[in-house]
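=== RUN LOG ===
request id: a7f3
mode: sequence -> structure
chains: 1
length: 55
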Amino acid sequence: MNGSFKRGAFLGGLLGVSALAFATSRMNPMQKRKIKRSARKAISNMKSGMNLLWR
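=== RESULT ===
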């Protein structure tokens, strides 16, 4: 189960990145800046959460 969870998380991440790339191609620079800032916070939170789970 652990291997399939990691594989699913990886595929989900790839799909999310491709969707984000498509969405940002249609935005103006101000919106992109706001998304980058919130994405940085979300990535930090996700990393700390994953570290907590995988200990």
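=== NOTES ===
The CA atoms of residues 33 and 39 lie 10 Å apart.
The chain has two helices and no strands.
=== END ===
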